[in-house]
Amino acid sequence: MEEKPLIDWDAGLFDCFEEVNTCCYGFWCGPCLACTVSRGFGENNCLPLCDIFISAASAIFGIPICVPPAALSVRAAMRNRYGIKGSLCKDIAVSCFCALCSWCQMHRELKHRKKTPTVINIQNNPVINLQPIPVAQPPVMMVPAQPPPAGFVAQPGVVVGSY
């Protein structure tokens, strides 16, 4: 299998002014943006809510969890699917310290992917049609070559002919 070269994200992590609508959406309703990105990527749209509930539960029990699992997993999966440069270490850092900016960046990436068509070039795939093409044939009428002699009655099982 041929390996494709890795590419950069369509927009940088802090490129909010390239698309102000996405940043406003993320700023005013971050969980809604995260759910939209998750659904657009093909995951359950409630997946980002795990980040909120896990953070709340860890705060209640005093467990210091700083990596939001949904943000990290969607980001890593998106990088993997689209062949984007980066590492798991960078994904952890971005998900920990810039989770909202990460969701905005992923949203911009999905919007870019929907606008840009993917061209697939298929080569060396011959199409073989195994069934013959149906042809309509006119009806054929069977007519004897010579009419039987007058008064001739054929008996079943008897072959009449000359030797």
What sequence of helices (H) and strands (E) makes up the elements? HHHHHH
User: First CA to last CA: what distance?
Assistant: 75 Å
Q: Helical amount among residues, as a percent range?
A: 40-55%
Number of DSSP E strands: 0
Global Rg: 36 Å
Mean pLDDT across every amino acid position = 78
**How many distinct helices?**
6
**Secondary structural class:** mainly alpha
| Largest sheet data | none
Overall outline: elongated
Transmembrane segments: 52-72
Protein name: Plac8 onzin related protein 6
Pfam families: PLAC8 (PF04749)
Family: Belongs to the cornifelin family.
Quick tags:
mainly alpha, 6 helices, 0% strand
Describe the structure.
The chain has six helices and no strands. Helix 5 packs across helix 6. The longest helix is centred in the middle third of the chain and has 17 residues, at 99-115. It has a domain at 28-115. The protein has helices spanning 20-28, 30-40, 49-61, 69-82, 88-97, 99-115. By secondary structure, the chain is mainly alpha-helical.
Short description:
Pfam families: PLAC8. The chain is an all-alpha fold and 163 residues long.
Write the layout of secondary structure elements.
Blueprint: H1 20-28, H2 30-40, H3 49-61, H4 69-82, H5 88-97, H6 99-115
